[in-house]
Amino acid sequence: MSNQSLGLSDALHAYLLEHGTCEPDVMRRLREETARHPKSNMQIAPEQGQFMALLVRMLGARRTLEIGTFTGYSALAVARTLPDTDDAQLVACDVSEEYTQVARRYWRETDVADKIDLRIAPALDTLNELLDDDQAGSFDFAFIDADKTSYDAYYERSLDLVRPGGLIALDNMFRGGNVTDPPPDDESTRAIDALNRKIAGDERVRVSMVPIADGLTLALKKR
């Protein structure tokens, strides 16, 4: 939805990137290649990638989950912060072989490919398989950035999969500002608005909606 934070001028965004975002060359090249893609608006902002990587590092995360991978920028940002241990893993869910071919190329270049378990299938199928495989409560962090009408289902499955004290991050929670008055025919925005209201009153989590990129909601699962 937005590859830079809403409300920032181009000049201020450039300043942010120069002075507040330490983007490695490989990630910059991936971002620039993705910018030429017809669906480049699906790319997360670099400041968001760095923010999530910092959160993952602060959590001391070893197992992470990503729902919606596209060309792999967010997965690369997170996987680079995971420790060099046998149990470090990012399970990435996507339905597109085409988009994720780009991701695989950059993952191999940075030696994080062995940490990423990419599953090409409908995300709900993968999440249900993880739960059926007794992996509930085994993830430290989950990032949701896929089809918006399924966000509620992704959120519920992620709550089951992350441990108490684990974190769920949900992207595009502003929907370009349209959540304040969702168009009647925009099912995606209406679904996000409904989920925003649900999470705000959800006693299972502690929540903060962060005005970065297109709105990033952080839901910390209570212990």
Roughly how much helix do the residues carry, as a percent range?
40-55%
The portion of residues forming beta strands comes to 15-25%
The termini sit apart by 32 Å
In CATH, the homologous superfamily goes by the name Vaccinia Virus protein VP39
What would the CATH topology be? Rossmann fold
Provide the CATH top-level class. Alpha Beta
Structural class from helices and strands?
A: alpha/beta
Overall 3D form: globular
Report Rg: 16 Å
Strand order, sheet with most strands: 3-2-1-4-5-7-6
Characterize the largest beta sheet: strand count, sense, and whether it forms a barrel.
Answer: 7 strands, mixed
The low-pLDDT segments are none
Number of domains: 1
Question: How would you summarize the topology of this molecule?
Answer:
Blueprint: H1 10-20, H2 25-35, H3 46-59, E1 63-67, H4 73-79, E2 89-94, H5 97-109, E3 116-120, H6 123-132, E4 139-144, H7 151-161, E5 162-170, H8 187-200, E6 205-210, E7 216-221
Parallel strand pairs: 1-2, 1-4, 2-3, 4-5
Antiparallel strand pairs: 5-7, 6-7
Helix pairs in contact: 3-4, 6-7
Describe the structure in brief.
By secondary structure, the protein is of the alpha/beta class. The protein is built from eight helices and seven strands, in the order H-H-H-E-H-E-H-E-H-E-H-E-H-E-E.
Question: Can you characterise this structure?
Answer:
This protein is of the alpha/beta class. It has a single domain (10-221), classed as Rossmann fold, CATH 3.40.50.150. It is 41% helix and 19% strand. It contains 8 helices and 7 strands. The chain has helices at 10-20, 25-35, 46-59, 73-79, 97-109, 123-132, 151-161, 187-200; strands at 63-67, 89-94, 116-120, 139-144, 162-170, 205-210, 216-221. It has a 7-stranded mixed β-sheet, with helices on both faces. Helix 3 runs parallel beside helix 4. The longest helix is centred in the first third of the chain and has 14 residues, at 46-59. The mean pLDDT is 96.
